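Journal club prep, notes for RB
We'll compare a predicted complex against what the paper describes. Inputs for the zinc ion case:
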Amino acid sequence: MSNEQDPQTGEVGRATGFELRDRDRDRGGQAAARGIDSALERNRAFAAAAGHEGAVVFPNLQLQLFVITCLDPRTDPAHFLGLGMSDAMVVRNVGGRVTPEVINDVAYIGQLAETIMPDGPLFEVAVIHHTQCGTGALADDTFRGRYAERIGVEESSLLEHAVLDPTATVTRDVDRLRKARAISPRVTVSGYVYDVVTGLVTTVVPA
Ligand SMILES: [Zn+2]
């Protein structure tokens, strides 16, 4: 695969945008070892500046937001949605996909919310898929075959996990949440696509 960046699309590499650039490759191991130390140092500064004070278990009432998105470092909702401490519940996984585990997470928070809010809307789940998603690698037969073997699942079940057309996959995942019997009908669900080139979020499925 090429590591060149396409000037038209901004895409790096063939499908995923996940290709290592040479400068990343050079500093690889060393950066990984230092990463957590640097993060722990930032944590001490955060605590010293009282960043944790005033945080609440349930999201700030104005937002009442539960975000599901990809774990890609480019798609951190604290940045692209401007979310601060206690603003939202966030689940991130590979692709931001609505898996059975994610459905259970939403059901769990829904049940907790029901205990403190006996009626009315509980919260909104926003599913956000993005362009240039690394799950695109699952469309590659060799990569998908190796990964299926590694995690011990049927190869055919993985193809569906690839976010090649985020508008289509986010629509499917919103539908999956809306149809899940474990989730309270008082939870609303909407779907969006985040464009990593423009930085903009587009509504695909309104609440
Ligand atoms: Zn992704």
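Talking point for the session: The chain has a mean pLDDT of 86.
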